[in-house]
Amino acid sequence: xxxxxxxxxxxxxxxxxxxxxxxxxxxxxxxxxxxxxxxxxxxxxxxxxxxxxxxxxxxxxxxxxxxxxxxxxxxxxxxxxxxxxxxxxxxxxxxxxxxxxxxxxxxxxxxxxxxxxxxxxxxxxxxxxxxxxxxxxxxxxxxxxxxxxxxxxxxxxxxxxx
Amino acid sequence: xxxxxxxxxxxxxxxxxxxxxxxxxxxxxxxxxxxxxxxxxxxxxxxxxxxxxxxxxxxxxxxxxxxxxxxxxxxxxxxxxxxxxxxxxxxxxxxxxxxxxxxxxxxxxxxxxxxxxxxxxxxxx
Lengths: 162, 125
Hints:
Chain A is an alpha+beta fold.
């Protein structure tokens, strides 16, 4: 994974994790997924494919996988549709990781962010609203945080069995 | 603003739309992923079918769709209301493929769209 720039710190160290869980298999499939793509419509199917493959590698239940792919695609579609209208081209950044929350449960945490500004297209005012209500129905927790530096959409899946 | 995708081939691989005529209906078969990139081809095919229908039923077979997002939902909803205005039935075929039925349920369109389980069920008798 390339070193990330900016204000990120305290990223988990795979070595610590390994030491703590000797009998877990090593780092495959990786517990984290990071995707950075140009914010264009053609990126969306790649994002969905990569997310599906990652979740399937983690034996994520298909029903929950469908919901997460839907939620992430809606968030990423919003970036393509709205984020960079006034600022010129930019990226969609997706960070996902799987966390064990108890002996029996796991959740996936997903962040979709951009460094643009969301501006609704006047000709389709309803579609973004539909996208947001789909996202919020598809995940357990949704927060959208917008500043003039960009927008980040954080989502937590419903918990699934380990 | 230029909204046209430049990479047509990728778009074609992602979504196939074919249209055939039955004695009592026009059937639009949709296969693949309906998203922001591909939704226009679904919308155009359904609009054309409604134009050609002359009162016949239009059936849209979604059983081989592998992704349906809000852009696709909006296109289906819009096509359904335009069909209703013309008094031409628009029937959507959705089996238990979760990638299709789930977004329809989550968005509350289950009660708005005319859903059938198979093309045979959707064809008028």
